[in-house]
What we know:
The chain is mostly helical. It is built from ten helices and no strands.
Amino acid sequence: MKRCDWVTNDLLLDYHDHEWGQKTTNPRTLFECLALEIMQGGLAWSLILKRQTDLRAAFQGFYPEQLADLSPASVEALLQDPRTIHHHRKIDAILHNATVIARMNEPFNHYLDRIVLPIAPDETALIKRTVKQMKADGFTYIGPKTINSFLEATGYLHHHDPECDWYREGIDTVSPY
């Protein structure tokens, strides 16, 4: 079976075949994907996948409501937790974004559908507008690369390589438009 060029090891193979690009409507899963994309910035995705279970445990399952209510002592403990990647700004952004999501008047998946799906299928415009809207709504530590990766990972964008056997299937079954 042919896969995307970035699939270079068994961990990436499993991720490619079972998670990446799969449309999800679960708000917690969407937040976890966003948090992992933030954590990944400047690092190899394989490292994030290797640490995903530890990161999920350290960040209390990536439930935004729980992270939004962390005490200062719990935040400090999280910053020192050996299961995390010690990048103060990334951790602060994840906690801040959890607070933004926890205070929304709608589930995170409905928010994303509302701001992403109505956009014309010009990917550059979609990414720029999504970043702009999310920043206006209070999200931090997001930019075009992070949001592009997030939208790919969660099935809003279909970016399998044309030679990948999943490419045709994705075009036929996954479309945000």
